[in-house]
Amino acid sequence: MAESLLASQRRQRILDALRSRGMVKTGELARTFGVSEMTIHRDLDALAAQGLVQKIFGGAVTTRLDESGAGCTICGAAPDKRLDVTLHLANGGSRLACCPHCGLMLLGRLGEQVQSAVTFDFVTRQTVNVRTATYVLESAATPCCSPSVLAFRMREDAERFRLGFGGRVADLEAAMAWLARSMGIGFVPVDQLSEVSPGRSRR
Ligand SMILES: [Zn+2]
Ligand SMILES: [Zn+2]
Fold it and tell me: Is 33 inside any structural domain?
């Protein structure tokens, strides 16, 4: 029974979920564990106090942003050379994401700290600027994270890909807005995260 889980077991499972998905939603966790959202808030508070998670509106994200390990900054997956996204930061550092799905999430979280970002055209494998790329969202091709986000250098290539594999074609702005909606989060600049209390409106 979900109710019989000890808080420590539940928190461990939350960390496991964060490791694989990069973020968790309070409502979803409450349903999964059969506990109240208040209980989940307390779990996330406890984990945040240990520096293991970062609370955002409606849930929590991993605190991997400062890790310089070789895995995806968002989900920890080993980056795939055909798909990975590199974000170059204003402070001279860089961050890696496994695919445009995580790349756009990371871009949303780092906001103006990102000076430039590059990925690869899904078909031609040419280098593409993330800001000028065209994206195919939620196509039948899901080589990495779901929902699938694939980058293309030319809009025509994205349209052609969509004809074969379905999905929607979008520019960066539309892709990020869609991703934030479909993941049930609002992108909050990292330096403002601590000002946002889950379950309450921003002051
Ligand atoms: Zn990832
Ligand atoms: Zn991925």
Answer: yes
Q: Which ligand is nearest to the CA of 73?
A: 1
Distance 57 CA to ligand 1 centre (A): 21
What gap in Å lies between CA 151 and CA 105, rounded to an integer? 14
Q: How far is the centre of ligand 1, averaged over its atoms, from the C-alpha of 4 (Å)? A: 32
Q: What is the pTM of this model?
A: 0.60
The model's pLDDT over 79-135, given as tens digits with 9 standing for 90+, comes to 777 899 999 988 888 889 999 999 999 999 898 899 999 999 999 988 999 999 999
Residue 7, Cβ neighbours under 10 Å: how many? 12
- Judge if 123 and 58 occupy the same domain: no
**Are residues 166 and 135 part of one domain?**
yes
Task: Lay out the sheet containing 168-170: strands in order across.
Answer: 149-152, 134-137, 168-170
**Tell me, what amino acid is at 85?**
V
Residue 113 Cα to ligand 2 midpoint, Å, equals 21
Distance 77 CA to ligand 2 centre (A): 7
155 and 188, same domain (yes or no): yes
Letter for the amino acid at 151?
A: A
Residue 40 belongs to a domain with what CATH number? Answer: 1.10.10.10
Centre of ligand 2 to C-alpha 183, Å, is 14
Domain carrying residue 34: 7-62
